[in-house]
Structure to design on (614 residues):
């Protein structure tokens, strides 16, 4: 018998669903990409865009396209991918569908670090462009490590629920601290911080693409390979141990990967939440609970969500922009409520 | 050789040991049942055997080798576990869940091999789940779901099967159903089965070997005939049991019982 004959009806059906989902998502991302190329303060007609893409545009047109618009779109896509995969991994590790990178302190930590930096050392605009992401990354990673250490117990290791609760507590503490610190900020820095926290994809040039890409190229295939481990972790500790999973080790590695992905993304995009929560959720509805499918497809859903949000944000209130993080939250939260209402338990 | 040798283990939290210096041997190719009152440490013993809990001292030996020195995946190829509180994530079909039993045998990536499929289909077959394999696992009844977990443990293809209260929450017929299945696996395929049961009569009827525990210690162990005596039942459960011979297995079963208050005589009918 060939392997096709071995497969059950539901397996074949799911494989068809996966293929269909991939195809539809690719089409939607492409459409969104084309629309996004044509969206912005300075409008280019589709023809102009096309001519510029193949190298026939004016200098100004290619400047807009290649130096402003494209890198920003690529950053939006990469950040969407990274946050969605990070969320998918986290939800698997802590066995809680409400987990997202924010609960392990990524956003709060990054926000606090950025804030401390601009309030004590220099003004936001004066800092070299690469300093801010590094500061944010350190803050995000630091908060995640702190939460992990506090949630860790000897002999018992790390339990999902303790991790989640510690995360909530630490994030609340950091947010309170930030409010206190905000009082001392001058208006210019305050505005920078507010936009940063709202998740404007502000790091939009090719250097940021290059800074972000290695994280995704290394960590996403890595967690994809670990899909079967995530599947087993999802069955609960005792079953997973019985099946021969190295619980503590795998959990730590996967958490670290999720932190790395989310911290890298947030340090470049600012405090975008929700993508990491909603993309894996949507994906589960499309393809079920197997992580071989969840990881790649939520990556695509995340890319689509953030690219669409960023495009909308640039288009809605021209010439000013609405941060993509806000758009995601505004569209995402009612949809999320709708999902919850529809989910039968 | 014994399948499992529990050697002088102490288990528990720092000052509060649940099990102290306990030694017991689990015979190969037999059905062994651990019985005892609530809180006697039987689940703790099982959880230590399947390496969910760590020992403070002593060791569990799997066919002569200390289990914590073995690679956990290698252990999983020889011993499968059905925990007391197994829960399925939503959105998995019966087939998918059963296929997870192949986890310790699989390489990092890749599809299920022909051998994997053979084990999965065999497990679905013996548990009578073939017709349900495309159903979502959490839409099944309690009895069916318990079969799914057993099927998952079976597809692991191990010689040893450890089950923590496999019949709890099931009605009478489904309880018997599961136990007959386990008995068949033992008789026809020589699998070693270790389980915790609350129902003494089931334990007596289906076991080759019984271990009775109280307060973290083994009170007695042996064949059902040796363990199911008035004396031991009084010591272990503090009951005066009316024992009769089971018409299906000839092992003693408990017809009815009284709580021990004074030393009232117990009788064998």
């Amino acid at each position: 018998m060939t392997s096709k004959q071995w497969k059950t009806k539901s397996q074949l059906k799911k494989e068809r669903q996966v293929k269909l989902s991939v195809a539809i998502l690719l089409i939607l991302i492409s459409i969104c990409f084309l629309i996004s190329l044509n969206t912005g303060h300075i409008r280019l007609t589709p023809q102009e865009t096309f001519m510029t893409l193949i190298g026939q545009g004016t200098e100004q047109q290619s400047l807009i396209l290649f130096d402003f618009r494209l890198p920003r779109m690529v950053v939006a896509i990469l950040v969407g991918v990274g946050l969605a995969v990070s969320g998918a991994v986290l939800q698997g590790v802590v066995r809680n569908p409400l987990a997202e990178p924010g609960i392990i302190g990524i956003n709060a930590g990054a926000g606090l670090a950025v804030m401390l930096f601009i309030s004590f050392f220099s003004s936001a605009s004066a800092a070299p462009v690469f300093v801010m992401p590094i500061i944010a990354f350190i803050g995000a990673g630091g908060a995640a490590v702190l939460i992990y250490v506090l949630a860790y117990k000897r002999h018992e290791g790390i339990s999902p629920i303790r991790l989640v609760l510690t995360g909530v507590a630490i994030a609340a503490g950091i947010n309170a601290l930030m409010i206190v610190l905000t009082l001392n900020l001058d208006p210019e820095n305050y505005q920078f911080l507010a936009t940063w926290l709202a998740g404007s994809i502000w790091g939009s040039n090719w250097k940021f693409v290059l800074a972000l890409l290695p994280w995704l190229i290394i960590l996403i295939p890595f967690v994809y390979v670990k899909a079967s481990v995530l599947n087993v972790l999802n069955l609960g500790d005792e079953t997973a141990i019985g099946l021969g999973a190295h619980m503590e080790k795998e959990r730590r590695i996967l958490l670290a990967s999720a932190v790395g992905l989310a911290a890298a993304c947030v340090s470049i995009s600012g405090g975008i939440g929700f993508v990491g929560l909603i993309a894996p959720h949507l994906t589960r509805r499309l393809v079920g609970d197997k992580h071989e499918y969840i990881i790649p497809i939520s990556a695509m859903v995340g890319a689509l969500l953030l690219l669409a949000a960023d495009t909308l944000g640039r288009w809605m209130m021209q010439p000013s922009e609405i941060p993509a993080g806000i758009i995601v939250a505004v569209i995402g939260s009612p949809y999320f409520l709708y999902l919850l209402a529809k989910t039968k338990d | 050789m014994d399948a499992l040798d529990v050697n002088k283990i102490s288990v528990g939290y720092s000052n509060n040991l649940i099990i102290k210096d306990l030694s017991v041997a689990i015979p190969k190719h037999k059905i062994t049942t651990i019985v005892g009152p609530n809180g006697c440490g039987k689940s703790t013993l099982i959880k230590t055997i399947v390496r969910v809990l760590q020992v403070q001292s002593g060791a569990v030996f799997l066919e002569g080798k200390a289990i914590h020195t073995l690679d956990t995946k290698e252990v999983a190829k020889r011993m499968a576990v059905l925990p007391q509180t197994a829960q399925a994530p939503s959105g998995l079909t019966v087939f998918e869940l059963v296929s997870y039993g192949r986890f310790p045998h699989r390489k990092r990536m890749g599809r299920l091999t022909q051998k994997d499929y053979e084990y999965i289909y065999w497990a679905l077959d013996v548990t009578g789940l073939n017709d349900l394999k495309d159903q979502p696992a959490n839409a099944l009844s309690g009895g069916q779901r318990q079969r799914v977990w057993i099927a998952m443990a079976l597809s692991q293809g191990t010689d040893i099967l450890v089950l923590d209260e496999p019949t709890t929450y099931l009605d009478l017929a489904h309880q018997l159903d599961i136990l007959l299945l386990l008995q068949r696996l033992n008789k026809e395929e020589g699998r070693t089965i270790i389980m915790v049961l609350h129902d003494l009569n089931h334990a007596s009827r289906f076991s080759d070997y019984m271990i009775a525990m109280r307060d973290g210690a083994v009170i007695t162990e042996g064949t059902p005939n040796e363990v199911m005596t008035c004396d031991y039942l009084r010591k272990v459960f503090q009951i005066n049991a009316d024992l009769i011979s089971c018409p299906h297995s000839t092992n003693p079963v408990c017809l009815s019982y009284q709580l021990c208050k004074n030393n009232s005589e117990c009788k064998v009918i």
